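Suppose you are handed a protein chain with no further information: no name, no annotation, nothing but its sequence. What can you learn? This example shows the usual starting point.
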Amino acid sequence: MPTPTAARAAADASNADAAPLHGLIGRWFDENARTLPWRDPGCSAWGIMVSEFMLQQTPVVRVLPVWEEWLRRWPEPAALAAEPSGEALRAWGRLGYPRRALRLHAAATAIVERHGGAVPAGREELLALPGVGTYTAAAIASFAFELPETVVDTNIRRVHARAVTGNALPSPALTAAEYKLAEALMPAEDTKRWNAGVMELGALVCTARSPRCSECPLLDRCAWIAAGRPEPHYVPKGQAWAGTDRQVRGAMMAVLRRADGPVPRHLLLGTVDLVHNGTDYAVELGKLQALGASDEQLVRSLDGLLADGLAEAVPAGVRLPA
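A reasonable first move is to predict its three-dimensional structure. Written in structure tokens, the prediction is:
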């Protein structure tokens, strides 16, 4: 039995066809959703916005402690905007992709300047903020303001691919057909619960590897199961880490976050200096040097951090942005 494409599924879908999915996933979510602070009814729109920035390509377990400390320190956009961007980078810790911290700081500044310090609800106003793309704008509008926005992340796409189109995985990148399918599946009401429920199902049950199909509320309606669980139509490519510039940049950022002041440039470029073994960043510096990166890679990685605004050069060396 051939599996439908996302385009065909979107063309065939109607609110009536999707109604059983709405009920099954909604009830499952009510009973199985994780208790997360950004889902608390009392969580501010700012708290939800911070969570959306942090959760991009980062597991919940790593985000939780950083999010909690971030909201304790900066409970509203104005509090973050009043700090140097380097403090946002320091507080970001090891979440990875630190440019998100710079963009969140810039977004907080824009919110203060353009919206009186309150996170805007409108999709276009959200999209105009630094670091806010189509997904993030829809997620904030849906989860913070309960607006009927179509939220489409990797977890949601995977549930749609298996349950509706019968594919093991969604396309490597979001397609127009997948987005149309997501729009066609949206309920007329309670869209926040639907968005959160499908996302949670993908995160906890319909996972990329080893899905727990026996626990899925859609087991009897899943097109992928009905098709005999076909293999993915492409081989997913893992993202390398060891030995990459990203690893070196991350180690350099760890040194800068730990240091109270500028770090001499030659230390970041691999020159051993026993005088600095007693510094507050000696452990992080040792980890950087232990990578064994070439001189060329060290220079390239440091130049990249400076070019991206994640670090700045001063006469005494290199530091986080002031």
